[in-house]
Design brief:
By secondary structure, the protein is α+β, with helices and mostly antiparallel strands. The chain has helices spanning 2-25, 39-47, 52-59, 136-150; strands spanning 29-34, 64-65, 72-82, 89-100, 106-112. Helices cover 37% and strands 25% of the residues. It has a domain at 27-116. Strand 4 (89-100) and strand 5 form a beta hairpin. Strands 1, 2, 3, 4 and 5 form a five-stranded antiparallel β-sheet that branches.
């Protein structure tokens, strides 16, 4: 009777530990992308009238520069929540637009969050990655190998 009680207790303990493991593995992880810790510096840029070279020294190169207006730089910061095999969820997305005058001094900063990103026109095209396509040669031999394995 004592051995049976211990066995049931061990089964219950293993079940609880397994349930806790599954719960912990589903909580996910947060990954940050772009320019980190930009909030500490971005508000002082216009007040100090920093130039492009000084901003680049502080924040690094901009994420992108305006193709049509040479006096605009963009710094982008985003955070994603990854949960097991689900598609990552966008938690936070901030775009800082720094506008410069003719003397390359920062004169204004516009901030766009994920709620008002529709003010910025993003290109929705996707770039296909090379090297993932199977060639005709690979497809033929894949079928040949499958048929030889099933025989």
């Amino acid at each position: 009777m004592k051995i049976l009680f211990n066995l049931n207790f061990i089964k219950l303990l293993l079940f609880i530990l397994f349930t806790l493991y599954l719960t912990a593995s589903c909580t996910g992880r947060v990954s940050n992308h772009g320019t980190l810790n930009i909030e500490k510096i971005i508000n002082t840029i216009v007040d100090r009238k920093l130039e492009k070279a000084e901003i680049e020294a502080l924040l690094g190169p901009p994420t992108t520069k305006s193709a049509f207006e040479f006096n605009k730089w963009y710094y982008i910061k985003s955070s994603l929540l990854h949960k097991s095999f689900y598609k990552p969820e966008l938690i936070d997305h901030i775009v800082y637009e720094i506008i410069f005058n003719a003397q390359n001094e920062a004169i204004a900063i516009n901030t766009y969050t994920k709620e008002n990103l529709n003010k910025i026109a993003y290109n929705k095209d996707k770039t296909e990655t090379k090297g993932n396509e199977t060639t005709l040669f690979q497809q033929i031999f894949k079928d040949v190998l499958k048929s030889s394995v099933t025989k």
